[in-house]
Fold:
Amino acid sequence: MAEISVTIKEAAYKEFLEKGFEKASMRNIAKTAGITTGAFYSRFENKDALYKTVFEDVTTKLERLFEILKPAYYRGAERGVGGILEVIEMEMLGVTGLIFDNYQLFQLLFLKSHGSEMEFYFDQIIEKKINDSLDYFKGFYDDENTLRLILINQYETYRQIIKHEYSKEDAMRSLQEVMRFYKFGWRGILKK
Structure:
C-alpha cells in the first residue's frame, strides 16, 4: 500500500506541476499511477487532500526550520539589534536553501495552488512568523503596523525569487544585498 501511495504522489506531483491545482485531473493521476479512480478515492478524500500530501515533506521542513530558529530569536533579542539581525540572516539563508533544494515544489506552492487549501499556506506561515516577531521586537520598536509591513515585505522576497525564476546564484547574491539593506533599515528604526 505504501508503494502505491508513493506512485500516486509522484503521479499527482507531475500532474499538478504541469497543470496546476485547478486544472489537474484526478482521473489522469489515477491512470498514471495505475489504479482506478475508486481506489484513489479510498486513499484520499479529495483532490485537495492529495495536493497537501505532495507538500508534506517540504512544509514539515519549513515549519521545523522556523521552530528551531524561534529560541534563537529570543537569544538574539537579548543581545540587542545585532543579535536579531544575525538570526534574520540565518533564517533568510535557511529558507532560501530550502527553496532551492525543492524548487519545483515551491513553484507549485507559490504559483499553481490557486483554488486549493495550500493557496494560502505561506500567507498563514508568514502571519504566524509576524506574530512571533512582534514579540521579539518588543522593547526595540513599538509600532506594530510598521513592523508588520516590513516583515511582510521581508517574507515576500521568497515568493519573488520563484515568481521571477532567479537562479540560486542570483538569489543568493541578491539576498546578500537585501540583507545589507535590511540591516541598515532595522538599525535605523530599532532602539539601540
Q: What stands out?
A: The chain has a mean pLDDT of 89. DSSP finds ten helices and no strands in the chain. The first helix runs from residue 2 to 23. The chain has two domains: 2-53, 56-189.
